[in-house]
Fold this sequence. Notes:
By secondary structure, the chain is an alpha+beta fold. The chain has 15 helices and 20 strands. A hairpin with a 4-residue loop joins strand 4 and strand 5 (120-123). Helix 11 crosses helix 14. It starts with 22 loop residues before the first strand and ends in a 7-residue tail after the last helix.
Amino acid sequence: xxxxxxxxxxxxxxxxxxxxxxxxxxxxxxxxxxxxxxxxxxxxxxxxxxxxxxxxxxxxxxxxxxxxxxxxxxxxxxxxxxxxxxxxxxxxxxxxxxxxxxxxxxxxxxxxxxxxxxxxxxxxxxxxxxxxxxxxxxxxxxxxxxxxxxxxxxxxxxxxxxxxxxxxxxxxxxxxxxxxxxxxxxxxxxxxxxxxxxxxxxxxxxxxxxxxxxxxxxxxxxxxxxxxxxxxxxxxxxxxxxxxxxxxxxxxxxxxxxxxxxxxxxxxxxxxxxxxxxxxxxxxxxxxxxxxxxxxxxxxxxxxxxxxxxxxxxxxxxxxxxxxxxxxxxxxxxxxxxxxxxxxxxxxxxxxxxxxxxxxxxxxxxxxxxxxxxxxxxxxxxxxxxxxxxxxxxxxxxxxxxxxxxxxxxxxxxxxxxxxxxxx
Length: 424
């Protein structure tokens, strides 16, 4: 064996005698990988987690900076519909580990939870770090080992796992099962760069192209409107074709971002790829009918400027009023002005890339895995989290999908290896 292929002198926790329990390697220390590791360790399996970055769950911590939205409290049927084309494959996993189970799990780590007015569910601490500290302590108590600074390089000719480390290449003897949970390709500086896709394709695994999801869209703003970058558009609805999404958006230097935009990112992305642009309509007062808006404007005091009429009659912000002007001079007649309020046309000319996306679409094709998320081309190797070809809007759906797929992969491994019952 050449020097660069020498096995690390430290005996891997995955090298074991026949009297020891089966051993599982979990590659990737995001939510899906950590949760799979927890479930496997609870069943009595030996688990070692390998993470490329110097510390775990960096994207999870980033998501928690503005309040960790773990899941959503809406009825399950509506919840499941958020997964679009992937619903049929994800539904059994989410039903097996539904939102209330995720809430109970977090509370079991000492994190009090609450449901916001939008139905989103958060820890009362509104941060990811307290939950992550408690979680890592639990994994340590279960005997899970962690090796950071390990970049997965695939397998050698004998099936050993290959990792690049600061000290050179390390080989880890073939474990009894492997969970791949390396994430998608969004925010690559936090650890998930999608480099695994070519390694799996080379092994006969079908992988669809990784694309940005839950990202902002480009708009060619006028110089006059560009000064509103950083201003929110609150309480709006965005319409694209037959789809309507209520929520908020944020004006940015490059265009628009925010929850209402992200929820429509899949069809908008595909429309832009096909036609080069996509036109949305922004309803600035979705709680009012067009007739009601027109009536309020007609009653507005004569002699006021249109800006004051819109501000006083409809409580529109300066950013909202000037967004209306981006579509052309404001109509003078109340009915026409109301129509503009209820449907400001905005043309999206492009989408922000993976480096700025909250999540990614694409990944391991569903036809490439069985019901337990085992790769058909690589027996004993399972996938979980954003590596799989699914996407969902923000609002708790992304994390719920990651936890549920981590749980499903662990359950399949426990069954396949004949391990003891899970403790929960």
